[in-house]
Amino acid sequence: MTTGTAPARLISRDAVGISYMLLSGTGVVFLPTTAKLAYESGSDVLTVAFSRGIIAILILLCAAMIVKQSLRLPRDMWVNSVVVGLAGALFVYGIFGAIVSINISLAILILYLYPMALAVYEHLFGSTRLLAAQWIWGSIAFAGLALILGVNLEQISFIGVALAILAMLASVVITVVNVKVSQQTGSLVSNLYMSLWGAAIFGLALLLFGQFNQPQTTVGWIALSGNGVAYCVSWVAFFSGARILGATRAAMITLIEPPMAAVFAWFIFGETFTLLQWVGFAVVLAALVMFEKLARSN
Q1: What confidence tens digit (pLDDT) does each residue in 236-282 have?
Q2: Radius of gyration (Cα) for the chain, nearest Å?
Q3: Any domain includes 8
Q4: Which of 128, 141, 239, 257 could form a disulfide with 25 if both were Cys (CB 3.0 to 4.6 A apart)?
Q5: Phi and psi angles of residue 173, each rounded to the nearest 5 degrees, phi first
Q6: ∠ CA(15), CA(16), CA(17), 5° rounding?
Q7: What percent of the chain lies above the pLDDT cut of 90?
Q8: Considering the chain, what is the average pLDDT of its residues?
């Protein structure tokens, strides 16, 4: 009876982890749209980054009070938590700097190299050992993503590429380090502190280099608030899923986020895609299904 119930228990746990990752992906889909609406209403990058950190802190504090979660951060996790906050700031600086300097599709493609970079790190220094077939399917998923994005190589800048790589490496650091924190404190508390450090960094940047440019319309305020909610949901769900699936599997599933965003744009805004891009959707989905199948059997 023990051997009979174990697989069912494993599948159920995997299903919960994957559900968290899909919820995280849904949050990520709304981040660029809400940020764009806030910018169009008179806000800017520093204001949005600071505000969403404050909004996330308020949401997570309320959630902690409701579930009676201790907010204590173990002493040996303080440095890790600060590192995550700094990496989060570097991520924002890198990705927005890259988008200004190079084509946005290339910047996103470089950013989504992070699951493979994380897999290499975990394979060499962590506890995750991928099968050869998993490396192949992971690479195929990334190739499918390249088809979807339709990368334009006409606008190439060394600085832009370097900034995109910085954002990608910052994503690896955030994942590796905050998974360690969340394993001890839970995703709610680890992300509360990540949001706290991020808000402090961007608040200081506003004081030194800019000003708080609040949205000038009701739509802008709704978008700013929605960006904070989406930011909170995406990170909390991601690290909840990573605690179950492991960092590498969780990161690899994030390759579904750009296709989810594209489908959202197609459904809401009527955006059209080429046959090659639809092929890319199919490739990404099939490759991730095969990767997950191997992960469960490994």
Answers
A1: 999 999 999 888 999 999 998 888 887 777 776 667 778 888 899 99
A2: 19
A3: no
A4: 257
A5: -65, -45
A6: 90
A7: 54
A8: 87
Query: For the chain, how far is it from start to end, CA to CA, in angstroms?
Result: 22
Write the CB contacts of 129 (distance below 8 Å, at least 6 apart in sequence). Answer: 123
2 in a structural domain: no
Q: Quick one: pLDDT at residue 2?
A: 40
pLDDT of residue 43: 92
The residue to which tokens 């996790």 are assigned: 77
Helix axes 218-245, 187-209, angle to 10 degrees: 140
Q: How far apart are CA 110 and CA 116, in angstroms?
A: 11
Please report where in the chains the tokens 């986020």 appear, as a residue. Answer: 257
DSSP letter for 256, please: G
DSSP string, 41-103: TT--HHHHHHHHHHHHHHHHHHHHHHHT------GGGHHHHHHHHHHHHHHHHHHHHHHHHS-
**How much is the average pLDDT of 76-88?**
93
At position 277, the amino acid (one-letter code) is: Q
DSSP state of 112: T
Residue 240 falls within a domain, yes or no? yes
Q: What is the pLDDT of residues 204-230, one digit of tens each?
A: 999 998 889 999 999 999 999 999 999
pTM: 0.86
Which residue type, as a one-letter code, is found at position 82? Answer: V
Boundaries of domain holding 188? 14-297
pLDDT at 125 over 60: yes
The token duo for 285 is 């989905």
Contact of 217 with 45, CB cutoff 8 Å: no
Number of domains present in the structure of the chain = 1
**The pLDDT of residue 269:** 64
- Residue matched to tokens 């650091």: 173
Contacts of 17 by beta carbon, 8 Å cutoff, 6+ apart: 241, 244, 245, 249, 250
Q: Given its phi and psi angles, is residue 150 left (phi above 0), alpha (psi -120 to 50 degrees) or beta? A: left
